[in-house]
Structure prediction request, 219 residues.
Amino acid sequence: MKFFLKPFVIIILSSLSLNAQTTNISTPSNIDIAKVLNMVKQGAVAQLVEAEKKGLDLNSLDAFGSSLLMNAILHQQTKVVDYLISKNVKLDVKSQNQQTALSLAVSNDQPELAKKLIELGVPLEGKCGRKELFVCAITMNDLNTAKLLFEKNKELILQKNEKNESVLIEAVKYGTTEVVKWLISQNKLELNDKSEDGKTALQIAQEMERDEIIVLLKK
Prediction:
C-alpha cells in the first residue's frame, strides 16, 4: 500500500497572540491583558480567579477576536477551559479567522471537549485553518465528533473542502476505512463527485492502493 499522510490542520498562532490587546471590552487599567493571556497559556487558574476579582471580564477578546476560552483550548489547558465554562463565558465567539471554540477543539484533537461544547448547544460552525468544521472532523479522523455534528445537522455532511471537493474525497485521501465506510452508509453523498483534478473517490482510492476502501466504493 502506498504511503499517505494525514494533513496537519494549521492554526495561525498569531490569531491567538499572547501579546495582543483586547477589543470591544472594557478592561480595568490595573489588569495587564498580556499577562492574563499568559496565565491562560500556563494554566494558572488561581491567578485568573484573582484577576477576575480585580475586574477582569472573562469574555475579553484579543486583537484578533479570539476569546480567553479559545486561547485555553489552543494551549490544551483543560482546567482553564473548565473554569471558564463554569463561569458561563460566551461559547459562540468567532475570531477574525472564523475560528470558534468548537472548531479549535476539533482541530486540536480534543473530542471530549468538542462533545461537551456540542451538548451545550454551541453553533455548529467555525473553521480549522481553511477547512469547514465537519470536513475538519473527518480529516482528523474524529468519527465520534463527526457523528455528533451529523446528528445535529445532517446537511453538514455536504460541506466541501478548501478545493471544493466532497468530504468523501477528503476521507479517501486522509481518513481511515472506518470513516469512509460511515460516510458512504449515510447515503447522502454522490460517489461519482470528482476531485479538483477530475478524479472520483474510487479512482483516488485505486491510485493510493487503498484496497478496503476500493471494495466499499464498488459495492
Notes: The first strand starts at residue 127 and ends at 128.
